[in-house]
Amino acid sequence: MTTINIILGSSRKTSLGKNLLNYLKLNQQKYEKEDQINLNFIEIGEYHLPFFYEAVPPMQNKNRSLPERQQKWLDDMQKADGYVFLTPEYNHSFPAVLKNAIDYLADQISGKVVQTITYANNSRGGQFGGIELNAVLFRLNAFIIPQNVAIGNVQDNFNQNGSILDGAKSGDYYQDKLNQTIKKISFYAKLLKNNPF
Ligand SMILES: Cc1cc2nc3c(=O)[nH]c(=O)nc-3n(C[C@H](O)[C@H](O)[C@H](O)COP(=O)(O)O)c2cc1C
């Protein structure tokens, strides 16, 4: 079975991104059935990773021995065939907590497909964060789906449980966008998994 990790890149307790993560969780069974995948939800803050400190860059270090939390993060990423990074824009980039976690990666996402979804509490949808994140994922040899998916004004469209708010102007539009995004990442993850280079 093809596994897609959906990774929330904000560690704030009151993260607006949780509304979107919860929307995807609410639809988990539907996606898994329709797209023949497993979805695995990850909140980056739950690993409580320390600031990266290793003496040797991960990709040059074949004999790595790591504490449990760092190893769990790497194992969780290794197990997946594709990734959706759900990230806000912080000061025109993406959150430091996500960059720190990514710096622990060696080849876990190499040759696998990635989709970035950005979001914000305003109409621009956090696109600068996506541009910067994609540049980092490119360096880690991921196949990046070129078009960033941007969700603006999350608070006006999704509630904390992930449901579409009553009367939300862009609710249907974003719902459709997210559903198509899961379909697309599932398609490419299966394609690459079944056709290794
Ligand atoms: C440290 C910080 C920096 C931010 N920088 C930007 C920014 O550059 N552009 C933007 O559109 N929104 C920015 N925002 C607003 C975010 O879009 C909004 O707070 C959103 O809820 C953040 O996602 P989160 O709640 O999941 O952490 C920033 C928010 C924070 C906390």
Automatic annotation (TrEMBL):
<dbReference type="InterPro" id="IPR029039">
    <property type="entry name" value="Flavoprotein-like_sf"/>
</dbReference>
<dbReference type="InterPro" id="IPR050712">
    <property type="entry name" value="NAD(P)H-dep_reductase"/>
</dbReference>
<dbReference type="GO" id="GO:0016491">
    <property type="term" value="F:oxidoreductase activity"/>
</dbReference>
<dbReference type="InterPro" id="IPR005025">
    <property type="entry name" value="FMN_Rdtase-like_dom"/>
</dbReference>
<dbReference type="Pfam" id="PF03358">
    <property type="entry name" value="FMN_red"/>
</dbReference>
<dbReference type="GO" id="GO:0010181">
    <property type="term" value="F:FMN binding"/>
</dbReference>
<feature type="domain" description="NADPH-dependent FMN reductase-like">
    <location>
        <begin position="3"/>
        <end position="154"/>
    </location>
</feature>
<dbReference type="GO" id="GO:0005829">
    <property type="term" value="C:cytosol"/>
</dbReference>
<protein>
    <submittedName>
        <fullName>FMN reductase</fullName>
    </submittedName>
</protein>
